Amino acid sequence: MKVTVRESDTFFYYSQLFDIPLALILASNRELDAEQLQPEQQVSIPGYVKHAVKIGPGDSLWRIATQRQLPLDALLLMNPKLDPYHLNAGDSVSIPIRMTKSIIKGNQAYDYQTMIKDINRLSAVYPFIRQQTVGQSVLGKKIPEIQIGQGQKQLHINGAFHAREWITTPVIMTFLNDYLLSLTNRRTLRGLSMAPFYETTTLSIVPMVNVDGVDLVIHGADAAEERKADVLKMNGGQSDFSQWKANIHGVDLNDQFPAGWDIEQQRREQSPGPADYPGAHPLSEPEAKAIAELTKQRDFERVIAFHTQGEEFYWGFEKKEPPEAENIATEFARVSGYKPIQYVDSYAGYKDWFINEWRKPGFTVELGREKNPVPLSQFAEIYQKALGIFLANFYM
């Protein structure tokens, strides 16, 4: 929501008027001079949307403000051209509506366009988040990254490395929305105030790594566009792509990283297909390369890659994980009920590479249970268990 600056208005005044933390308002208006607002400038108020209501016979701004429990000056600010003493029945008044419910509807088939639409909606309501494109897929789709927070502690999470594991994306997006709601409504998540984490932490999120593959699983071969014939051939002529893990090239993106890649290459599939082909060489695929470049550019303290399924997580690699990784793993297990596994006979994954290169904590979290793709009927349970890990990631 935007309001028009009046003479002598300040960001601090807007913070008090709309009960929004000053840091969020400042971050939502990075392009403006925080020390000297100019009349007629437009200021974004995060966490609010505008709503138009019709003026009834005998209505006044005072009555509308009282009925809706709004500060009168908020109505005056939002309706600068309205004469408060001469309202005409049938005219419209803009009122501020605080967002208190989630925009994200995670319990649905969650494809690339749904994610992009939701990111744009969140950015419009919560402009203190930042987004950028970190790379492009084989089919040229932009891979978005979202950043939130102002702290020096850099954390990274991602989802949907594997196409059939797309449920990880709405889980991540639901948490992001809950985090935003907690900040703008000054409410806790599981008893934790989130404002201190916003100030101390910068969270990087890539909700969907394998953007082409997710659309292939959800929409079928037509989603592969000019590569439709290729994916049908790799899938044995079958139109059911529900078990597809790879990208559109038929490469497993979580077998693409230079951390024992040669070991995986020798024992995995030797040609492109729905699953388990590590590619011709490490980081051959644009999606894996995009995540690798992002990681190299940032000083991430910790990374978490969300996968499915098994209700467990992996936290070691060739004894190169730092000592503090065990404490973090213990807490992740406590708050989620998931089983911590230090070592597994697997190489070339994103968390393997992160641990190998930086000797910092990295985690692969397997959400849900039974089989892939995990059914949407598990979504609510998955989210509640994952929420503990999302929150512990901040305070550990």
UniProtKB/TrEMBL annotation:
GO terms for biological process: proteolysis. CDD domains: LysM, M14_Endopeptidase_I. Residues 51-95 form the LysM domain. It comes from the Bacteria. The active site is at E366. The keyword Zinc applies. One of its GO terms (cellular component) is extracellular space. Residues 108-394 form the Peptidase M14 domain. It holds the Pfam family Peptidase_M14. Keywords: Hydrolase, Metal-binding, Metalloprotease, Protease, Zinc. Its cofactor is Zn(2+). SUPFAM superfamilies: Zn-dependent exopeptidases. One of its GO terms (molecular function) is metallocarboxypeptidase activity. Belongs to the peptidase M14 family. PANTHER family: PROTEASE FAMILY M14 CARBOXYPEPTIDASE A,B, SLL0236 PROTEIN. This is Peptidase M14. It comes from Pullulanibacillus camelliae. The lineage of its organism: Bacteria, Bacillati, Bacillota, Bacilli, Bacillales.
